[in-house]
Structure formats: C-alpha cells, structure tokens
Amino acid sequence: MSSHRATISAEGDAKMTPERGPVIITALVSIGIGCHSGPTGPTTVSVDYGAVHQVLEGFGAAGAYDTAELADFGQSNPTIYDDLFGTPALGRGLGLDLIRIRNTYQQQGDTNLAAVGKIVTAGKARNPELKTALAAWSPTASLKSNGDIDNGGTITKSGTAYDYAAYAAWWADSLTTGWSGVGVTVDSISIQNEPDIATSYDSCLFAPTENAKYAGYNSAFDAVYKAIAARVPASLSAMPKMIGPESIGYEAGPSDLDGRGARNYIDNLTADGKANIYAYAIHPYADAGGGLPGWDNPDRHLSGMRNFAADSRYNNKPLWMTEYCRLSDSPDFGQAIALAWHIHNFLVEMKASAYVHFPLFRAASISVGGMVNFDASSNTYAVRDLYYFLKHYSYFTDPGWSIVGATNNSGNLRITAFKDPDGHKLTVVILNKSDTTETFPLTVDGFTPASAQVFRSSATEHWISQGSYAPGEPMSLPPLSIVTIVFSDS
Predict the structure, then answer these.
(1) Single pTM value for the model
(2) What is the layout of strands, in order, in the sheet containing 402-408?
(3) Residue 233, CB half-sphere, CA atoms under 13 Å: how many?
(4) Nearest C-alpha neighbor of 213 from the set 138, 144, 154, 168
(5) Of 156, 161, 365, 371, which has the fewest Cβ atoms less than 10 A away?
(6) CB of 297 closer than 8 Å to CB of 257
C-alpha cells in the first residue's frame, strides 16, 4: 500500500553480515493475543488428508520500493538474495513462489525497471520457478488527469471520453518494451493497485463503472486485456494472468468510489471481464474496522471472510490476498504472530489460494512492514521475525498443493495443513497464539508417513530443527510459537 518511512529499529531483527550469522534481538507488542482459552479437557489436533479444499497458488511478498538500493547492495552482498529467494534445494531462504513488483514504465527518472530486472534474475537463479506479479500504482504522468503519478487523479480523456485505448497501450508497451527489455517475464498483472484510494505517493483512481469524476475499472480492464492479447504471440510468448481488483478492502471502501470494496468492482466487471479475469485479488486494509485494529485482531475479519467465501459471485475464481501489513512501527515479534494468524485465516476461513505479504525488503531507513532490511552504510541486513513466521508456511509447500482439513479443540491453536498433488507429502503448520504452553497429540487420517521433520520459531528461536515426530506422540508447543511438521511417505 505504502512507502511509509521510519527509522530502522533493532526490535525483531536478526542482524546479518556476509561474515557472520544472526544475532537475534526480539520484542513483543500487544496484538490482541488472548490469555489461555484452551479446552476444559486434553487438547487434540487432527488432520484429514482426504478432506481436500482449494489448490494453493503460492506464497509471495512485494518488492515494490527500494529496488535500486537492493540491486546495488546485492552486488557486494549476494547472500541477501539467498535469504530472499532461496528454497529447500539451496538449504536457506523463504521458498517464495512469487514476487509482486511495481509497474513504473515511462515514469520520469525511473530506476525501478532495471533494478527489478537484476533482482528477478538473482531470484530465478536461486528458484527457477519464481513468478512475477506486476501491478501499477499509477500509469505515467502524461496519462493522468492531474498530470502527476501521485495524489490520485484518474486517467486522461480524449475529447469528452476517457482514453482507455492510450492507457491500455501503455500497459501493453510496458510488457513488450519495458519489462521484456530488462529480462523480466511477467506472469500475472493487476491493472491498478488499490483503485479506490488516492495517496500522496503514486496512485490512480477508478470507479467500478465510469462516472463524470473517475474512469471505470471495468472498461479499463477490458481495454488492457485486449491490448495485451493482441501482442500474443508476436511480441509476447503468452498472455499473463489477469487478476484484480486489489481494492483497499474486500467488503469496505470509500463511499464515493465503491462503498463495498472488491465486491462492487467484481460485480461490475463486464461479461468479458468476468470471463477473462483469472483470480480475484483483494487487500483487507479497510475491513474489520480498518487500519491497525484489523491487523492487530485477525479474528475480527472472520465474519466478512466467511461471507465473502460463501458467496457464489466471488468463490468461482481463485482468490489471492496480494497485500497486507501493519502500516505503523518497525516490525516486531507481535507482528510475526499476527502474520501467521492472518495467513491461517485467509487460507482456511476465506479459502484464499495465494498470500502475498507487503513488503519483502526495505532499505535501512524504511522499516515498516519489511521482512528484511538492508543497510549499505554498515554492510548488514536485518532478518525480521516476520520472515521466519512466513517461512513456516512457504518453505515446504508449492503451487499445486492443496489445503486439507485440520481441526483442534483449543481456541489457542491455528492449524493449517497442505498436501502435495502426488499424495506423498503432508505439511502441517501449527500456531500457538496464546501465552500458555499447549501439549497435544497430532493425529493424521488418510496418510501414513514414514518420516517427519519438525521446525519451530518463537521469540527466541528462528526456524530451529526439533528432530523427528511420529503422529500420535505428545507435542508441546511453547507460548507464542509456531511449528512446521513436514511428513513424507518415504
């Protein structure tokens, strides 16, 4: 959402240098975590391998800002790319499936395209399957009604009509000239990040349907799709997946634009738009009371999530959550607990197929939301607690896996389980969001593992191996901790 700037903090950092390992410094803030709310009897946890739900499209994070700075930093500190983009094959990293990048084609003085080209190249060298999700925060200033990439505005008019053709041509040119020119193959696009909010940084407003004040998102979407499709295969090898609307909320939004968040944008897509959109993409900043309360209290989203997931107008496509973070303060341990809790809720309660954190990295003076912060002046980078808690979901899962059923009788635990498409692996992630230890046996129905690996993170542990585990054995999960159990049948 934002390019908020703040002073880098030591809270929740693991200071990294090329010469030495991490020194962990953590701090916990209140995020609405509760006291003990477990069952009156013994805690039980079970996974049903045969209860298969939505197919996973992957986990990602945004590389929207500070890309030129990272490209420079990475030249002398290439290990940062190992931590950002590594996979189990490399033995380190997050195992990310996609990086969300910002379309700055033809913006004056732009250094982002060339830098992202270097970053994506480094990422793909470590993970050839890494995908790119491209979103525009604003088109070039010449296409804006206010003549500025910042401060909202909408697209220009040609005579009395909004110039959707020029806007669509800019989008198509950005792929065939801009991004291809720096070696980036774009796998998916969102025509406009948060089309319902004007910000002091780059932004552009679209109403669900056009009116006297704003161009229509539905018309812009159709125009962009047609312009890009016309370049395939002569200039583009394949049509990128079109996602949207990435509005500021899935059920809430500014009254003068949508009032109902993503619902109104989706409802007003044309028949062609509904056929051509690959996935519905949402941001939850405006929901559950909006702002910090929504982030700090993940279960405040549950009612809206369940309503959205149950509505046949919105559950007929994959659902991607493409941006969320706590837009205040330097990332601390409390935000890591909230992140894992949100991931569980979006995947299990809202049936999302993809979860994309904002942002993956920031420069040293900009710490809000970043999982990794790098500082060229000291030649170091900080790995946040957020990083490790995302890793528990992203490292041992892949696109094509499926969410499977998982239950427990404790209000303190959040269990998310994933199976591979070939039926040979099972990854179970268990978050203890409470301030008490939970002890339980984990039972698995429909899958007989031959081996298991266990990894745990907390305020004092960061992806630490806990050895092996056999289903049915008692497992103790300390307060405010997360564990990933990786089962295999061989």
Answers:
(1) 0.92
(2) 464-467, 451-457, 481-488, 425-432, 413-419, 402-408, 45-55, 438-445, 474-477
(3) 2
(4) 154
(5) 161
(6) no
